Every structure is written in C-alpha cells, then in structure tokens.
C-alpha cells in the first residue's frame, strides 16, 4: 500500500511602484514558494491489519443497522397488534 501527499504554496507577484524590485515587472505572475512531496509505503502485513480494522468496523455497522431494523420492526408490529386488539374491545 502506498500513500502520497503533495502541497504547493504560491504567491501572486504584481507590479508595485512602492517596491523598487517590483517596479519593472510588466505582468502578473505566480511564484512558487514552497513545494512538499511526501510518500510512504507500508508492507503487505501492515496493509492487511489496516484493511481488516477498517472492514471489521464497517461489518459491525452493517450488523448493527440490521439489528436495529429488526428490533424496530418487532416493536412496530407489537404496537400494531396491541392497537387493533384494544380497538376491537368496546369501552364499558
């Protein structure tokens, strides 16, 4: 597994009559000030540990979602049955 991160910081340079070095500039231009390039590589074993930790959490969320849907459905059916049973009885 490989990772890469790149960053570039630029400044816009324009003509300026107050700064002597910028008096002779005719056009605007962008000047790169900082350039970073970072890369990393991890071994297959570490990549598998990372992958398993991420996928295990996703599997747990799917299981939790399914469990909550089942519990909600059972509660809904229970209230629905209780509602119709109470509605069928006549008040005294």
Describe this structure in words.
The chain is α+β, with helices and mostly antiparallel strands. The protein has 2 domains: 1-41, no CATH class; 44-91. 49% of the residues lie in helices and 27% in strands. It has a two-stranded antiparallel sheet. The termini are far apart. It is found in: Apical cell membrane; Cell membrane; Golgi apparatus; Membrane raft. It catalyses: hexadecanoate(out) = hexadecanoate(in); tetracosanoate(out) = tetracosanoate(in); (9Z,12Z)-octadecadienoate(out) = (9Z,12Z)-octadecadienoate(in); (9Z)-octadecenoate(out) = (9Z)-octadecenoate(in). It comes from Thamnophis sirtalis.
Number of strands: 2
Helix content: 40-55%
Pattern of helices and strands = EEH
Shape: elongated
Average pLDDT taken over every residue: 89
Stretches where pLDDT falls below 50 for ≥5 residues? none
Strand count, sense and barrel status of the largest sheet are: 2 strands, antiparallel
Percent in strands: 25-35%
Look at the helices and sheets and give the structural class. Answer: alpha+beta
Pfam families: CD36 (PF01130)
Membrane topology: Multi-pass membrane protein
GO cellular component, one term: Golgi apparatus
Subcellular location: Apical cell membrane; Cell membrane; Golgi apparatus; Membrane raft
SSE blueprint:
Layout: E1 2-13, E2 29-41, H1 44-88
Antiparallel strand pairs: 1-2
